[in-house]
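Convert to structure. Protein one:
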Amino acid sequence: MKDQMSCCCCVPLGMAYHIIACFEIIFMTFLIVQSLEYYYAAEDGEKAKAHHIIKLFYNWIFYMLVASISVYSVPRIFVYLFTICRSKSYSRLQLYFTTRIITFLLLALIHITMFVVLF
């Protein structure tokens, strides 16, 4: 059983591994709901029809949320499911945690860029 882990290494790490993935799914659902809310606010709001800047603001927030979903949430959930469906090895857990770090840095880059654009 070389490089095999019994139950995600140990019980606390294994539980945290699954609990964090559940929180990420909840967070992705929240991002989807918020992005749809901003999309409909940009299209249907009376304020958005009156002022082009407000519609542009709602559209930029919508784009930021969609980018956050596609760059942050989807890769994390995909790598979690890939890791959980295959044999649990140390190298797969390293891939999972490396993906978490990279996606977090990409999310920070998206938010900083959007802050500068909206400012």
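Protein two, convert as well:
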Amino acid sequence: MIDKRGGTTLGIVVGIVIVLLIISGIFVYYFFGGNGENFNFRELRNPTEGLSDEQALLDFDEGFVEYLLYSIGAGNLRNKPLSKDTPKLEIYIGDVSYMAEVIEGVVNVEVGEFSDEDVIIRAPKMVAIKMIRDRNYIFESFSSGESSVELISEKVELAGKGYLGIYSELTGEEVGE
């Protein structure tokens, strides 16, 4: 003889466990997801390839900024969980401001400024060209102070969008409480 109340209770408990596992999986994906390499980056051609430093300085445009952002991992940024709030970066290269928005792993760059950016990155144009030519130079540039990254949004929002890992890689520092 099966106790109907016990069977119903067991069904409810199993249902709750399944829902919690799904929610936990979504949480883990958004906060720890990404394989560290964005597919779109592999498709991009290095814009400095075949150019002298002088020519790269003259040709510097949104494509250079896009390549640099993929190089630092911006293609792995994502919307905050359960939100349509996309990652927004403002990048100052020399005296020109670029705004970048990451939509489903694709970095879109335009000349201009945001009023609601999450982070601001600054670098002299020649330093940006060095970082594009040599990905190993990126960390050196930020650790030496030639380039900088300023966190604008709240820590919870930055974590939800995936910025904190990039910040730690660039600066060698963890974000404090």
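The chain is about 50% helix and 15% strand. The helical segments are 4-32, 39-43, 53-59, 62-71, 125-133, 136-144, 155-161, 163-171.
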